[in-house]
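In response to the reviewer comment on reproducibility (Comment 2.3), we provide here a single inverse folding case reported in full, input and output, so that an independent group could reproduce the run without further information from us. The structure tokens appear first.
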């Protein structure tokens, strides 16, 4: 574990933001365990977690009923994702879980609102098979944008949860609770539903995690919007830089989560969060392959006319192997807001690095 101080400066060449920050940092060492990408599909085992080091990835759908003195009452829907680790040994035969979650407004006249929170919780089984569980979770983090009065940005949530494991790799859950802003009157009852996919196999009686090596990809990407509608009424080009995470679900099907932010086009603070599914013509490029993906998520900020925030994106791509684990891709697609406003063709250039990591 390491602690330190950091000094940073932010300059926006196309805007007026210019600032200097002092930060306190806390870091700890971890291991990035993986096998060569060409081993994907083979059986494997390990005593430790691999790759991202988390047990499950959840897609979330949340509903806030905003209220409070001076707060315009409305209902806001958010879509997002959560990464979680799970550890047994908790009281009542339960488990501890903690993680990181993000979400963005998709409906409710709050386009541009985004939040990121750290969470921790506990749950315990309600049946002998431990498929049905109940528990509680607390979350603390930052939220802002979309006209929501979060003051300095600190928000917290307290939630009660119920979950059902459908099979070893899929869990669904519902939660209900309360949200509060730290320094404004903003408060809201919260309802949330989620679907989680296991990223790691559970440890067996022998202490090993037994599973199948799945192709996992981290991708750096540039996107170019040809006509990004603005709230001012015009439409201009816009460029984003992004990061994608993808995990093979079968030989030709993969799941993906993505984050993109504008770096050119006069739309500073415009950001996108997406999740969805994709298909490929082959599990790996040999040396070529093609694919397509369909994504949904939230976008906002930067004066872009993203409606209520909900967006969908379709993309077709072709890739060529530069090395056994490196692929260069060129894609074309279309992104549009679910409501009026943003609807644009896009071009994407990306490069991915593949690994093989244990999956259930």
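Designed residues, in position order:
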């Amino acid at each position: 574990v390491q602690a330190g101080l950091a000094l940073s400066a932010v300059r926006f060449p196309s805007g007026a933001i210019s600032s200097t920050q002092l930060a306190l940092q806390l870091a700890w060492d971890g291991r990035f365990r993986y096998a060569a990408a060409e081993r994907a599909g083979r059986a494997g085992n390990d005593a430790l977690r691999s790759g991202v080091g988390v047990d499950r990835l959840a897609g979330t759908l949340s509903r806030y009923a905003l209220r409070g003195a001076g707060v315009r009452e409305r209902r806001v829907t958010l879509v997002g994702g959560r990464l979680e680790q799970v550890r047994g040994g908790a009281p009542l035969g339960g488990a501890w879980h903690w993680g990181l979650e993000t979400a963005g407004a998709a409906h409710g006249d709050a386009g541009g609102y985004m939040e990121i929170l750290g969470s921790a919780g506990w749950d315990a089984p309600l049946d002998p098979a431990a498929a049905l569980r109940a528990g509680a979770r607390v979350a603390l983090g930052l939220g802002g944008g979309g006209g929501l009065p979060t003051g300095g940005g600190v928000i917290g949530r307290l939630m009660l949860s119920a979950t059902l494991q459908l099979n070893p790799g899929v869990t669904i859950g519902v939660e209900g609770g309360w949200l509060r802003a730290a320094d404004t009157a903003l408060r809201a009852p919260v309802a949330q539903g989620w679907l989680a996919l296991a990223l790691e196999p559970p440890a067996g009686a022998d202490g090993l995690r037994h599973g199948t090596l799945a192709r996992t990809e981290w991708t750096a990407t540039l996107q170019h919007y040809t006509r990004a509608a603005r709230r001012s009424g015009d439409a201009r080009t816009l460029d984003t830089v992004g990061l994608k995470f993808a995990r093979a679900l079968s030989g030709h099907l993969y799941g993906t989560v993505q984050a993109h932010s504008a770096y050119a086009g006069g739309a500073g603070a415009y950001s996108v969060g997406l999740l969805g599914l994709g298909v490929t013509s082959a599990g790996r490029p040999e040396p070529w392959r093609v694919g397509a993906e369909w994504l949904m998520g939230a976008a906002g900020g930067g004066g872009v006319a993203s409606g209520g925030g909900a967006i969908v994106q379709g993309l077709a791509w072709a890739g060529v192997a530069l090395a056994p684990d490196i692929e260069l891709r060129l894609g074309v697609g279309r992104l549009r807001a679910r409501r009026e406003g943003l609807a644009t063709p896009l071009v994407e250039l990306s490069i991915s690095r593949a690994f093989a990591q244990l999956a259930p």
